[in-house]
Amino acid sequence: MRTIGVTGGVGSGKSVVLDYLRDRYGARVIVADEAARQLEEPGQACYNELLELLGKEVLGSDGYFDNRKFAAAIFSDEKKLAAVNAIVHPEVKRYILSEMEKEEKNGCRYFVVEAALLIEENYDEILDELWYVYVPEEIRRGRLKSSRGYSDEKIDSIFAVQLSEQEFRDRCRYVIDNSDELSKTCRQVDKLMGCA
């Protein structure tokens, strides 16, 4: 089974690459943020520890974490953010490793993980290769404004905490330029998959 990590800055269009790998190659795709949200639900691996750390005031009336309250509680407090990451990231990695094991036993050919912190969390230690989805900053900025309605200030704050383009390039084996037409992106993926 070939295991691939897909990363890149916010607004680079990683989901386009993931969708293509899933649809064209039948890849099993795990998005780390989605896995984290599942693990934060009541009865799941991270729930009790997070509740103990953040308190009941971050819960909604349904007993699930309220995303807005949760974000407000951690993003203004670096120690709390670090504590949440120390709970969630190892559990996400454990979940991904267990899914990899299952998929390999089931004869899966391609297993793909997307995570914004793929490099920072050392996923290169458990995956065969890392791919960097590249788009110039000005195009990403435009996409974030039009698709998500982000302000320049919000975009600046997100960009400030992400790795630089050079760091992504240095740590990833392959670079996919996703700044042009979808067909060109897909051709690059086909080439990396040995089908071009």
Short description:
The chain is α/β, with parallel strands linked by helices and 196 residues long. It contains nine helices and five strands.
What features would you describe in this structure?
With 196 residues, this protein is α/β, with parallel strands linked by helices. It is globular, with a radius of gyration of 18 Å. It has a five-stranded parallel β-sheet, with helices on both faces. It folds into two domains: 1-27 and 109-196, Rossmann fold (3-Layer(aba) Sandwich); 33-106, P-loop containing nucleotide triphosphate hydrolases (Rossmann fold, 3-Layer(aba) Sandwich), CATH 3.40.50. It is built from nine helices and five strands, in the order βαβααααββαααβα. The longest helix is centred in the middle third of the chain and has 28 residues, at 78-105.
Structure keywords:
five-stranded parallel sheet, Rossmann fold, 196 residues, alpha/beta, globular, 9 helices, 5 strands
Task: List the quaternary state of the chains.
Answer: single chain
The largest pleated sheet is described as: 5 strands, parallel
Distance between the termini: 20 Å
Weakly predicted, low-confidence segments? none
Strand order of the largest sheet: 2-3-1-4-5
The CATH topology name of the largest domain reads Rossmann fold
Q: What's the β-strand tally?
A: 5
How many helices does DSSP assign?
A: 9
Strand content: 5-15%
Shape: globular
Helix-strand category: alpha/beta
**Name of the top-level CATH class of the largest domain:** Alpha Beta
Considering DSSP H and I runs of 4 or more, what fraction of the residues is helical?
40-55%
Would you identify the CATH H-level superfamily of the largest domain? P-loop containing nucleotide triphosphate hydrolases
Radius of gyration: 18 Å
